[in-house]
Give the backbone structure.
Amino acid sequence: MARKKSKHDRYEDLPEEDEAPQEIPPCWLCGRPMGKNVVWHHPVPKSRGGRDVVAMHPVCQATVMANFTNSELQRHGMNVEGLLDNPKVRSFVDWVAKKDPDFNAAMVSKKR
């Protein structure tokens, strides 16, 4: 007998392979074209009711996670301009704009 799909499937809101867009949009944070590694990021954390996902570079997602709490991300929602108002994030985006799409760097941990 086939196993039923769980109500609590943690991957249910991610695009299926056949449903994924053929052309991946540019990075939600920096606007650069995507490379080989794509992270599907929840701008509003799932723990805060977020369902939408956006494509991001791993280094861009790490920067967002290092500079904002879940509460702050919930307040900003899908508004990327609110995140770019943060001076650390703005300087990161200006710096990474000249890098290759597959560029990756180690991130500093959160300072709280």
User: Anything to note?
Assistant: The longest strand covers residues 39-41. The beta strands are 39-41, 54-56.
